[in-house]
Specification:
Elements (H helix, E strand, L loop, with lengths): L12 H17 L8 H8 L3 H9 L6 H11 L3 H4 L8
Length: 89
């Protein structure tokens, strides 16, 4: 039997926003340069640049619909952004 799944638990809402923001930025840096801009991302996923900026700076959190769009764009599982998974793969 393998190792138990490790979870990062964030009880405080602000802690989760910071974790989500950090992970969004890490995932964005792994994209090819031409897809890293928030303007390009916003246009392709139909989310305003202002909203995306809030998510990437930790000032706000995406709703479920936008979370799904962002995860598909960044090619990461939602569990990773929610802090339920340590590895983005």
């Amino acid at each position: 039997m393998g190792d138990p799944i490790k979870y990062e638990i964030y009880d405080e809402f602000d802690g989760w926003k910071i974790l989500c923001s950090d992970r969004l930025n890490e995932a964005r840096k792994r994209l090819p340069k031409e897809f890293q801009s928030l303007a390009k991302m916003g246009k392709l996923v139909d989310i305003s640049t202002t909203q995306l900026s809030g998510y990437f700076t930790g000032k706000s959190i995406p709703n479920l619909k936008n979370l799904k769009k962002i995860c598909i764009y960044l090619q990461i599982p939602a569990d990773y952004l929610l802090g339920l998974k340590i590895d983005p793969q």
